[in-house]
TrEMBL record:
Swiss-Prot/TrEMBL keywords: Cell membrane, Membrane, Transmembrane, Transmembrane helix
Pfam families assigned to the protein according to its UniProt record, in alphabetical order: LapA_dom
Transmembrane domains' residue ranges: 46-68
Name this protein carries in UniProt: DUF1049 domain-containing protein
Taxonomic path: Bacteria, Pseudomonadati, Pseudomonadota, Alphaproteobacteria, Rhodobacterales
Source species of the chain: Thalassovita mangrovi
Length: 118
């Protein structure tokens, strides 16, 4: 199984390198469309190789997806945490009750011995 993982990672690496080599041309990324940039005065642009834009888009999509899932699953994590605390509290309460029952049982034995002695 380990070799299959290494083969997959090597194949993925070769594919990523070939995409990067095939898309080395520079592209201009602008913050806003030209007409809107002239209107607002925010004309920011940068020249980057195309493969950086492609890989950056993939990374940004993954990060957005991870954050989205983390926020979506919050209610499930909160419920699990609440149930875990509840189990912990009930376990402590059960141990206390068992100790109480043991001490009460010991007292009953002592009273029985005293009754037998008299």
């Amino acid at each position: 199984m380990r070799y299959i993982r290494y083969a997959f990672l090597a194949t993925l690496g070769v594919i990523l390198v070939s995409v990067a080599l095939a898309n080395r041309g520079a592209v201009t990324l602008s913050l806003l469309p030209e007409a809107l940039a002239d209107f607002t005065g925010l004309s920011y642009s940068i020249d980057l190789p195309l493969f950086v834009v492609i890989f950056g888009g993939i990374v940004a999509g993954l990060l957005i997806g991870f954050v989205w899932e983390w926020m979506r699953e919050y209610k499930h994590r909160a419920t699990a945490s609440r149930k875990s605390r509840e189990v912990h509290d009930l376990t402590r309460q059960l141990k206390r009750e068992k100790r109480r029952a043991d001490t009460a049982e010991q007292k009953d034995e002592v009273l029985a011995l005293l009754d037998e002695a008299s």
